[in-house]
Design goal:
By secondary structure, the chain is mostly helical. It contains five helices and no strands.
Length: about 160
């Protein structure tokens, strides 16, 4: 990559980082208002927790994982924008994003329904047939494995560079 192309790529990475920050802050603030601030204000006012407030918060758990995945992507691209080598930044970002998507997918398919069953908010099966959650979980697992491959390739490259 030539110098002007590299500078343009770093600028794009920095812009994406700010987009990720904006998304995480805005969506995270809305989630916090919906599931923490408003129910807390109603609890203080009425002295009791509204029906379904805890269940709604449980439904938001996968979203929190997905937002962390967006944050991790933004963080990795921010490192590239600051001049860090792409390979180590990519390996760490893939690892964190993969974990976030994998855990979010598992929570979406298995965790939410069973937590709701344990707290008495729902009845029914032990898993929720959520194709999007299953897909995100599988993609997360693949990204996690790719992060390990990229990290291993970087270590092998460094070892080969020492030999030369």
């Amino acid at each position: 990559m030539q110098v002007p192309e590299a500078a343009a790529f770093r600028r794009l990475c920095a812009q994406y980082r700010w987009l990720a920050i904006f998304m995480v802050v805005s969506v995270g603030a809305l989630l916090a208002l919906m599931h923490i601030a408003f129910p807390l204000a109603l609890w203080i006012r009425d002295g009791q927790v509204r029906d379904g407030a805890i269940g709604a918060a449980v439904f938001a758990l996968p979203t929190v994982c997905y937002l962390y995945g967006v944050w991790a992507i933004g963080h990795g691209l921010g490192e590239v924008a600051r001049g860090r080598l792409i390979q180590p930044a990519l390996a760490g970002a893939l690892h964190r994003v993969g974990l976030a998507l994998g855990i979010g997918g598992l929570l979406s398919v298995f965790g939410v329904t069973n937590i709701l069953r344990m707290i008495g908010q729902a009845q029914g099966g032990y898993l929720y047939f959520d194709v999007a959650g299953m897909t995100l979980g599988m993609i997360g697992g693949a990204l996690f494995l790719l992060g390990r491959v990229v990290d291993h390739a970087g270590r092998l490259q460094a070892e080969l560079d020492e030999m030369i």
